[in-house]
Amino acid sequence: MHVNAPSPPLKSSPYARYVLALLLGVNLLNYIDRQVLYAVFPLIQHDFSLSDTALGLLGSGFMVTYMVSAPLFGWLGDRWSRTRLAAAGLGIWSVATAAAGLAPTYPALLTARTTVGVGEASFGTVSPGLLAEFFDRERRGRILSYFYLAIPVGSALGYLLGGVIGQQWGWHAAFMMVGLPGLLLVLPVWLMREPPRRTDAAPEQNDAPDHGGYRALFRNRSFIANTLAMAAMTFALGGLAQWIPTFLYREHGLSVATGNTLFGGLTVVTGICGTLTGGWLGDRLQRRTPKGYLLVSGWGFLLGTPAAAYAILTPSLNHCLGGMFLAEFFLFLNTGPLNTVIVNVTRPAVRAMAFAVNIFFIHALGDAISPTILGRLSDIWGLRTALLSTPVAILVAALFAFLCCRSIEGDMAKAE
Length: 416
Known about the structure:
Low-confidence stretches: 1-10, 199-212
InterPro entries: MFS (IPR011701), MFS_dom (IPR020846), MFS_spinster-like (IPR044770), MFS_trans_sf (IPR036259)
Order of helices and strands: HHHHHHHHHHHHHHHHHHHHH
Transmembrane segments: 15-32, 53-73, 85-103, 146-165, 171-191, 223-241, 261-281, 293-313, 325-345, 352-374, 386-405
Domain Major facilitator superfamily (MFS) profile: 19-409
Membrane topology: Multi-pass membrane protein
Largest sheet: none
Distance between the termini: 26 Å
Number of strands: 0
Protein name: MFS transporter
Radius of gyration: 20 Å
Mean pLDDT: 84
C-alpha cells in the first residue's frame, strides 16, 4: 500500500518549519516518557524491594522491545504513511506510560515499559527521514540537530519532572502526569502532510538486491561503521543516563529530587549547547570535506572520554558535576552529525529501513544491555566501579567514527 498524491513540501517554508516544531515537540515527549523511569529508580526499588539487576531490567526491557519492533516499522515506513505511523506510535507510548502509573506489581510495570518501546519504535524509525524530506541536503545537519535537541531537553525534563513529582506524590503520579499530555498531539501528527519520497524508482525496485533494501545496507561500509560508533556511544550514554541519578543518590548523598534536578539541569544546558554546536560545526566542516560530520563526532568522543572517567572517579561532588558537564557537552556534539550521516549514505526509498536497522543495532549492542550489565556489575563490585565501563565504550565509539571516514565519500556518491 502506498500513499497517493502527497503534497510536495516547500523547503524552508512556513509549513516545513511547522513540521519541524511539531516533530520536535513529539520527540521531547518521547524522551521525557523514556527518561522519567530512571528519575524514580530509587523509589521503585524501595517499593518493590528490587536488586540493581532487576531495576536495570526495566530499562533493558523497554530497549529490547524498541529495537525488535524497529525493523517492522522500518519496512512499513518505506511503504505506508509515515505520518500515520508516527501518530500511532505517539498514542501507544503515551497510553503505556500512563499505564505504568497504575502498575501494582513489578511484572505489571515491566509490561507497561516494554509496551512503551513499541510506540517509540514506530515514531523513531520514520520521523528523521520524514523530516529530512522537507529540507535541502545542505541544511540537514542543523535541522536534525534541532530535532535531536529533544534528547537532552526531553531527558532533562524527564529527570526534573520525575524527581520532583516522584518525591512529592510518588512514582505512580510521575508516570501518569508525563504520559497523558502526548495524547494531545496525536491528531496534529496524523493530519500532517505526507511529503513525496525523493527518488525516481519505486520502493519495490529499490528493495531489489542491487538497489537497496536491508541487504544493501549491510554492504554499506559507512552505514555499518557509523552504526557501530552509535552503538558504542549508546551503550555508554544509556548506562550513564539510567544510573547517574542513582549514583548521585548513593555516592554523594543527594536526595532523589536534588540529584535529578542537578543532573537534569546539566543535561539540558550541555545538551542544547553541544547539540547545536555539533550541528553548526558539522555543516561547516561538511562543506569542506565529506568527513566533516564524522570528524566532529570522533573528536567529541575523544574529548568526552577522560571527562566521563574523572566524573565517576572523583570523590568531590563539585568536581563530579564539572566532569559531567564537560563529558556531556562533548558527547552531545555527535547527535545531529551521526544521524545526518545515515541520511546522506542511504537512498530516500529505503531511509526508514536504514533508521530501523540503525535503531535495532545501536540498542541491541547498546542500552538494551548496558543497564542490566551495569546493574549486575554494581551488585558485584559497586556502582562506581561498574560505571567505569562507560568511558571505555565512548573511546570505542571514537574509533568507529574515524574508521567511517575511510568510506564516507564513496558511499555518499552512491546514495545521490
